[in-house]
Structure formats: structure tokens, C-alpha cells
Amino acid sequence: MNKKVITALAVICIINAHHTIHSDNDQQEEIFLTSSALRYVDGVKNLLDGAALGLILQIRREVRKIHLGAPGKKNSLIGCYQFEGKPYSIRTLTILEQQNNAYKEKLITLFDKIKKDFEAIVDPFLESARGAKEYMIQLIEEFCKKRNRTDSFILEWAETDDGDESEIFNARITSFKDLDIFCTDLADFLAVLARSCQKAKAQLMGKYAHIRK
To answer: Which residues are registered as beta bridge partners of 77?
Structure first.
């Protein structure tokens, strides 16, 4: 099975799961974006069409992988990073960082690597969103209000001038706790965005309909 088919199946599995796209925290209310900005981007070619939605879902999957871990046996999650011979995710490194100050110095090199990995993962999303940046900011604002996360860094990050995202990211994200919160908000936003884009979802499902048969 080639890489394109594997990617297609992964996207379909994500979309079909419980017939919707869930946020990481099952206790959170399932929200939808209803801003007028949505009708200017949902399903529109080169803005937020089926191909862009597929990219968003893949990026969210990769963010969650480094954030929470890769799927293991019996619904377990296995960290993608090694520290002192043990696997860790951003979430478990956050706990480690908070439990023992002695680890902070030792974790600096790993922290810098993980931030670079994160930037490499989300860079395609930033590039694809540039054409719809005005609308994307409105959608993030709506998301932050509905989640009561008006102080979330994702809004400031989105409002940053094109090309300056890395600079502000590295200036503001200075601990694993910061990165943990940012990953949580970003993955949640991408889930809510994908769930709200019904036209793009239909386009994406149509593209891979032959594989589902």
C-alpha cells in the first residue's frame, strides 16, 4: 500500500470517527464555528477546500503525536522523545519539569529540539492559511470566546505578521507548560475548525470515496 493511500485512509478514519471530529478533552462542550468568515473560506479552492482540510487533519494528528504520544497497545500513548532512557511526550515532560526543578537545565536541549519539531509540523498550516489570514483570525477569535480562552496564545500567534511567527513563538513559549497549553489550544481549534467546515469535509470525503468502497 503506497503512502498516498495510507494517508487517505488515515484522514478518512479521523473524519469517520463517531461521524465527527472530536476535541482532545471529552469533557469539553462540542462547539461549532458560525462566524460569517466561515462562508468565505469553507470549500473555497486555495483557501479552505478539501485538500486544505486534509492537511489540517494531518497536522493536528502530528501535533497530538508529539504532544500526547503515539498510539500504543491497549489504547496507551507512547512518548516520541527519549529522556534518560525513557519515552516522554510534551505532556509528560511538562509534569516532569514541574515536579523537579533539577531537571530544567537538563531538559533545555530537548526542549529546543521539540520546539523546532513543532514548528516544522505547523509550518505548512501557516503557509496554507496566509491567503485566508483575515478570516482565520476571525475564526480563532470566535473559538477563543466560545472556549473562554481569550488569553490563548494562538490568537496572538495568528495575528503576528507573516514570517514573524517563529520569533514570537520562541519568545513566548519558554517552558514545557507553555508548549503543553499551546498544543492543547491549537489541536482543539483545528478540531473545531475541521468539524465546522462541512463543504470542505464533503470535498475531502468525495476525493477518497473510491478508497472507502
So the answer is: 71
**Whole-prediction pTM:** 0.87
Contact yes or no for 42/48 (Cβ under 8 A): yes
Angular region, 85: left φ>0, alpha ψ -120 to 50, beta rest: left
The boundaries of the domain holding residue 66 are 3-212
For the segment 94-147, what is each residue's pLDDT rounded down to a tens digit? Answer: 999 998 877 888 899 999 999 999 999 999 999 988 889 999 999 999 999 999
- Which distant-in-sequence residues (6+ apart) come within 8 Å of 184 by Cβ? 24, 25, 67
Q: Which three cell numbers stand for residue 59?
A: 497536522
List phi, psi (to 5°) of 48.
-140, 65
**What are the pLDDT digits (tens) for 142-192?**
999 999 999 999 999 999 998 999 999 999 999 999 999 999 999 999 999
What is the per-residue DSSP string for 134-173?
Answer: HHHHHHHHHHHHHTT-TT-HHHHHHHSPTT-HHHHHHHH-
Domain count, the chain: 1
